[in-house]
Write a structure and sequence with these properties.
Blueprint (H helix, E strand, L loop, with lengths): L1 H5 L13 H8 L7 H14 L9 H25 L6 H29 L6 H5 L1 H21 L6 H17 L20 H12 L8 H14 L5 E2 L7 E5 L18 E5 L1 H20 L4 H16 L14 E11 H16 L6 E3 L5 E3 L18 E6 L3 E6 L12 E6 L6 E10 L5 E9 L1 E9 L8 E2 L2 E2 L7 E7 L12 E4 L9 E6 L2 E13 L4 E7 L2
Antiparallel strand pairs: 1-3, 2-3, 4-7, 4-9, 5-6, 7-8, 8-11, 9-10, 10-11, 12-15, 12-17, 13-14, 15-16, 16-19, 17-18, 18-19
Length: 546
């Protein structure tokens, strides 16, 4: 009674959600130097009482928001770590999973509070903060959607209907346009309404193209959050360029007003976004030109230009490079540098002749035959399940697979592809990825060479050492390394005629002179400017120096 009279809070260790002081006491026991462990502990706490809906008391809500404040900086640390280029894919997946789990836990808890308020009872204090409950619920739903974008997943129609239903509830409660921020000291631009949190999810959905990296999605989400306070939904079309939204359908923003709407139809004017993009693009152009050693600026510039198209309803579709045609057949795929070198090494070994009574296994080791018969050695298969080609053009393929290795692919990955009854390996780059139902992965692959060969390369020393064998200067020093020699580019304009080379970034330098062993013959060449490069490979044209 005395505690209630004077508003004194006593921490209860058995129930962290009893009040703000209880959750602060619980949070003080989180590991100070382990953000992943701390976030996982918060996820377990949120999950522990998920089966039992909480009472929508004001103390519970304040405790939940206090835990939210403690989790925000930890999530920021995990997101910053996941952006590090040196981070392994396995660790990055764990970081994403931790962020996804805590976002799902908070979203569910806030959703429970919204549901409890609609039940009869005295929730006066909770109703006064209901705009914050909806804002945080939509915020964490947006975090979950970003995680889905990182994994190139598609939201099912039921998920969109559930999101639209929550927005309608916020409208009915009369809190949809009331701004909120967890921190009382937040500036006005950081105070976003439930509608503005909801709109960020809808605009992120326009970016689900399957060819943006997690880093690009992070950049776009950060820019969008800074501009979200300028966005509003309207009942009718305003002046300017905008999207339409049907709250009764299981989809997001569309270009045209639905002819047969299934629910309330709203309009979003995106002109404020384009005003800020029009300022961002020239600023990034200046920064990228002044700092050529910072590739991130060039990537941000390319992304900003892309967003002008993605967030512009009347932007025309880019024309395809060639007509698509059905091409239902199997194709074997080697993904990544390690698998490609193994696949093309096996091809080279198959051409060689072993001594009588011996054979080469798939690792290139000389093995003795048994009883005059060839004994198959250990095999390295690139993928136990062949990919299926769905359609193709002169320079592109759409391929699908349900194998485990297919799930590891990402845009920008290098692929070697071998069709049935074709001894040659083609080389391609994953440009688009889509996760379909039943674990199926669909890739859009750009073919950059119809014939790829594994060659040995070493730096060319133009000095004459005086030691030569068969016309080759054996006094030249330099460690040999593997590279992919590309010929027969497809009929397209982006790949110029001639030969090119794909090599690892550590071996690339513009103007570097190399001696290449191609089909048993040495060929001297100079590396030109990189046509395309990633952290795993560099693709450059070769200039003949003879």
């Amino acid at each position: 009674m005395i505690n209630r009279l004077f508003g004194i809070q006593i921490a209860r260790r058995g129930d962290p959600f009893a009040n703000e002081k209880s959750v602060r006491l619980w949070a003080s026991g989180l590991p100070p130097n382990d953000p992943v462990g701390a976030i996982e502990a918060i996820s377990r706490l949120l999950e522990s009482a998920r089966a039992a809906p909480p009472a929508a008391t004001h103390d519970y809500l304040r405790a939940l928001m206090e835990l939210d404040r403690a989790a925000v900086p930890l999530q920021a640390q995990l997101q910053a770590q996941s952006r590090m280029a040196t981070m392994s894919d396995d660790v990055r997946q764990r970081l994403w999973r931790a962020c996804d789990d805590v976002a799902r836990g908070f979203a569910h808890r806030y959703e429970q509070v919204c549901g409890a308020v609609q039940v009869e009872g005295d929730h006066t204090k909770v109703r006064a903060e209901l705009h914050g409950v909806y804002a945080r619920m939509f915020y964490y739903t947006g975090v979950q959607y970003c995680q889905a974008l990182f994994r190139y997943e598609q939201w099912i129609p039921g998920k969109w209907r559930q999101l639209h239903a929550a927005y309608r509830e916020a409208c009915q409660q009369g809190v949809v346009a009331e701004a909120f921020a967890l921190e009382a000291t937040a500036v006005p631009a950081e105070r976003l309404s439930p509608e503005q949190e909801y709109l960020q999810i809808l605009l992120l959905q326009r970016m689900n193209t399957g060819n943006l990296t997690a880093q690009q999605i992070d950049w776009a989400a950060a820019w969008l959050r800074g501009w979200a306070h300028l966005l509003r939904l309207a009942m009718g079309q305003l002046e300017g360029d905008g999207f339409w939204l049907d709250l009764g359908r299981g989809e997001g923003l569309v270009h045209r007003r639905p002819a047969s709407p299934a629910g309330d139809v709203l309009y979003l004017d995106v002109m404020p976004l384009h005003v800020h993009l029009a300022l961002l693009v020239p600023r990034l152009e200046v920064q990228a030109a002044a700092n050529p050693a910072q590739p991130e600026l060039s990537e941000q510039l390319a992304l900003a230009r892309r967003l002008v198209q993605l967030w512009r309803p009347q932007a025309g579709e880019e024309p395809r490079r060639g007509a698509r045609r059905p091409a239902y057949q199997d194709v074997h795929v080697a993904a990544g540098w390690a698998e490609i070198t193994v696949a093309l090494s096996a091809k080279t070994i198959q051409k060689s002749s072993a001594p009588q009574g011996y054979h080469y296994d798939d690792y290139g080791r000389l093995r003795q035959n048994k009883d005059g018969q060839r004994v198959t050695g250990d095999t390295r298969r690139m993928d136990p399940d062949a990919w299926q080609v769905q359609d193709a053009s002169d320079s592109d393929l759409r391929i699908c697979s349900s194998s485990r290795r297919a799930a590891r692919q990402r845009p920008g990955v290098l692929l070697a592809l071998q069709f049935e009854d074709d001894p040659h390996w083609q080389l391609g780059i994953v440009r688009r990825l889509k996760r379909l139902g039943a674990g199926q992965i669909e890739l859009g692959v750009e073919i950059i060479a119809a014939n790829a060969a594994l060659v040995l390369a070493r730096e060319l020393d133009v000095r004459d050492t005086g030691y030569s064998v068969d016309g080759v200067d054996i006094g030249q020093k330099g460690k040999s390394f593997s590279a992919l020699y590309l010929s027969s580019p497809p009929a397209r304009t982006r790949v110029p005629p001639g030969v090119s080379l794909v090599l690892q970034p550590a071996e690339y330098a513009k103007g570097r002179l190399l001696s290449l062993l191609v089909d048993g013959h040495y060929q001297d060449a100079c590396l030109s400017a990189a046509q395309e490069r990633t952290k795993d490979w560099v693709w450059t044209r070769l200039e003949d120096i003879r």
